[in-house]
Amino acid sequence: MTDRYAVFGHPIAHSKSPQIHAAFARQTAQDMRYEAILAPLDGFAESIARFAAEGGRGANVTVPFKEEAFRLATRLTAHAERAGAANTLVFEADGVLGDNTDGAGLVADLTRKLQRPLSARRILLLGAGGAARGVIAPLLEQGPAELVIANRTVSRAQRLAEPFDGRVKACGFDALDTPFDVVINATAASLAGELPPLSPQVFGAGALAYDMMYGRDTPFLAFARAHGADTADGLGMLVEQAAEAFFLWRGVRPDTAPVIAALRA
Ligand code: ATR
């Protein structure tokens, strides 16, 4: 029987996940179907329960339901626990496993772009919302020389850094005056067509500037490019986080490069 999966969000019409998972399934000859489901803003848990009752095997969860998915899970991976949010659910016989593959997706994409590991790199993470929180632990696991979180509201950055026992530094944008190897924009500024108030000094020689948003050039990427950085948008992260979910469900690792190339084209 064909196994069913779906992505739940609100809105969901423009999600690329069905296309990505269909490509993975074709490539790895998995008998599965993957659809996009619009959950009502006040009816996420019901939508999930119905899908699982109908035989659904797993789900991806996107905005604005990742925190609700975290609360709904009966078992959590360490990454979901740290993120306080789940983007991947597995419906098991005795409950629901919640994982968060966003950070692993980001690490995989960064590693490919840099063509070397993140260990000993100086990493600057901009923003202290859900997008930033989801990637801190996976980035730290790579053993960077430094991980700094900068946010407009400094107290939010401090709150995110706190559980990591001094291994993550927190500050405001105005305190940034040293160079980094990787600068990741996890703020919502790009959505609004805005540029975080960033000193160009953060871009060290050969720095990679990474915007988690994809689909258009952002003020952050344009600014970084103008100051000599290499740039990348979040499309690769989107495909890589999907690949991590696919692996969790199917036990098979798809080849992401052709899928990223197809989406770009
Ligand atoms: P998400 O879950 O997408 O991360 P969020 O929790 O609303 O969304 O967080 C949005 C993040 O973008 C915050 O870090 C926010 O900064 P504040 O905490 O100071 O509000 C940041 N942000 C939004 N617009 C910004 C802008 N124009 N410049 C800099 N940071 C911005």
Topology, pairings included?
Elements: E1 3-9, H1 17-28, E2 32-38, H2 44-53, E3 56-61, H3 66-72, E4 75-76, H4 78-83, E5 88-92, E6 95-99, H5 102-114, E7 122-126, H6 130-133, H7 136-140, E8 146-150, H8 154-161, E9 169-171, E10 180-185, E11 203-211, H9 219-226, E12 230-232, H10 235-250, H11 257-264
Parallel strand pairs: 1-2, 1-3, 4-6, 7-8, 7-10, 8-9, 10-11, 11-12
Antiparallel strand pairs: 3-5, 5-6
Helix pairs in contact: 1-10, 5-10
Verbal overview:
The protein has 265 residues and is α/β, with parallel strands linked by helices. It has two domains: 3-100 and 237-264, Rossmann fold; 103-233, 3-Layer(aba) Sandwich (Rossmann fold). Helix content is 37%, strand content 24%. The chain is built from eleven helices and twelve strands. The chain has helices spanning 17-28, 44-53, 66-72, 78-83, 102-114, 130-133, 136-140, 154-161, 219-226, 235-250, 257-264, and strands spanning 3-9, 32-38, 56-61, 75-76, 88-92, 95-99, 122-126, 146-150, 169-171, 180-185, 203-211, 230-232. The strands form two sheets. It has a six-stranded mixed beta sheet with strand order 2-1-3-5-6-4, sandwiched between helices. The protein has a six-stranded parallel beta sheet with strand order 9-8-7-10-11-12, sandwiched between helices. Helix 1 (17-28) packs across helix 10 (235-250) and helix 5 (102-114) crosses helix 10. The mean pLDDT is 97. Bound molecules: 2'-monophosphoadenosine-5'-diphosphate. Residues 127-132, 151-153, 156, 187-189, 192, 194, 196 line the site of 2'-monophosphoadenosine-5'-diphosphate.
